[in-house]
Amino acid sequence: MTKSLTEIPLSVEWKETYIRILDQQKLPHETVFLDLFTLKDVFQAIVTLKVRGAPAIGITAAYGLALTAQSYTVSCLNEFRRKLQEDRDYIASSRPTAVNLFWAIDRLMKAIDHASSVNAAKTNLIHEAVSIQMEDEATCREIGEYALTLFKKNDRVLTICNAGSIATAKYGTALSPFYLAKEREMPLKVFACETRPVLQGARLTVWELLQANIDVTLITDNMAAHTIKTKGITSIIVGADRITANGDTANKIGTLNLAILAKSFNIPFYVAAPLSTFDLTKKTGEEIVIEERPPTEVTHIGDQLIAPAGVTVFNPAFDVTPNEYITAIITEKGVISGDYRTHIRDLFI
Ligand code: MRU
To answer: Can you tell me the distance from the alpha carbon of 35 to that of 13, in angstroms, rounded to the nearest whole number?
Structure first.
């Protein structure tokens, strides 16, 4: 039976005294929810990729900060701010690359700037975190609308990682146009790279799209060039974890390979991302900190060791695509291309 998008579980839910997340490590075999009661629980869930994807990380961290602040027993606002800053710094250290994490928790810090009491500050934090999630849903739908204008009937679109509903509040960024196309009965074919090392494409993107009855074909990452060539891929669309002032874009490791292939095969390479993914404090992608993750993600698939034990491993979680490889960046404010420095600056005016 076909599931509509409304039935795909939410990545994150605020439950007043705890946060419920969809455990993305258990997918696709089990749809299990995990209840987070402390900021440490939230930290662990983010580090271990139980919740992942730039916007979803930001939303969860914001809820984590709002939740932990409810337990502060201080009565002085300055002391409240000091404790919140400490907890902000702690959750900020969970993952370095996706700027949405920092954007969301810094929005919470600002939300208490003019609070008149500790109780008011506690309420502001909850409201701000809820707003971040609600805004992200609307934003992702707008990104989908703009992205869809770039596709035509029967296009064959390649993607990597999971920039879908469960990586955001709803709809996703790179996957949002596919949901909207489905709603409008516009036929599109999606090709999903499995996305080694931890298989967000095979486990999450395929799971999501199949639930919505979207036409998706799974390939391994090293099949991309052959697939573009033989299956008539018309474009590539990916999400982003951080976009610098000049349009350079960090996204899941393997994205740069696809950008180079797109140029070589002369097909468009699109990046879909909300304004919360832009980092104007960084001029170019050279300044982006790339997270390196545990070697076991490379030496193992699931619990199965697939390489000689003890081998030296390099496991960067992201790469940076230089702006010249990017045909267009799709945001909730529209599609930009060409002179990214100017267009990105204009997005924030
Ligand atoms: O390590 P992950 O799974 O958090 O990496 C996720 C990505 O690279 C996504 O493409 C990006 O966060 C955009 S999600 C809308």
So the answer is: 9
Residues 87, 241, 248, 279: which is the catalytic one? 241
164 Cβ below 6 A of ligand 1:
no
- For residue 30, give the CATH number of its domain: 1.20.120.420
Mark which of 140, 169, 185 sits at the end of a domain. 140
Identify whether 241 is a catalytic site residue. Answer: yes
- pLDDT band, residue 7 (cuts 50/70/90): confident
Whether residue 105 sits in one domain with residue 152 = no
Domain that includes residue 164, residue range: 143-347
Cβ of 200 less than 6 Å from ligand 1: yes
Mark whether 89 and 73 lie in a shared domain: yes
Considering its fold, how many domains does the chain have in total? 2
Q: What is the pLDDT of residues 136-169, one digit of tens each?
A: 999 999 999 999 999 999 999 999 999 999 999 9
**Residue located nearest, by CA, to atom 8 of ligand 1:** 252
Q: Is the dihedral of CA 275, 56, 315, 190 positive or negative?
A: negative
Measure 166 CA to ligand 1 centroid, in angstroms: 10
| 103 shares its domain with 173 | no
Q: Does the Cβ of 169 fall within 6 Å of ligand 1?
A: no
What's the predicted TM-score (pTM) here? 0.97
Cβ of residue 251 lying under 6 Å from some atom of ligand 1: yes
Distance CA(245)–CA(248), nearest Å, equals 8
Q: Is the predicted pLDDT of residue 2 greater than 80, yes or no?
A: no
Q: What is the CATH number of the domain that holds 243?
A: 3.40.50.10470
Determine contact, residues 88/108, Cβ cutoff 8 Å.
yes
Q: Determine which residue's CA is closest to atom 15 belonging to ligand 1.
A: 163
276 lines ligand 1 (CB under 6 A): no
Distance 57 CA to ligand 1 centre (A): 9
Residues 223, 236, single domain; the answer is yes
152-155: long-range contacts, CB 8 A cutoff, minimum separation 24? 153/186, 153/187, 153/188, 154/187, 154/188, 154/189, 155/188, 155/189, 155/234, 155/235
Claim to verify: residue 107 and residue 200 sit in the same structural domain: no
- 83 and 202: one domain? no
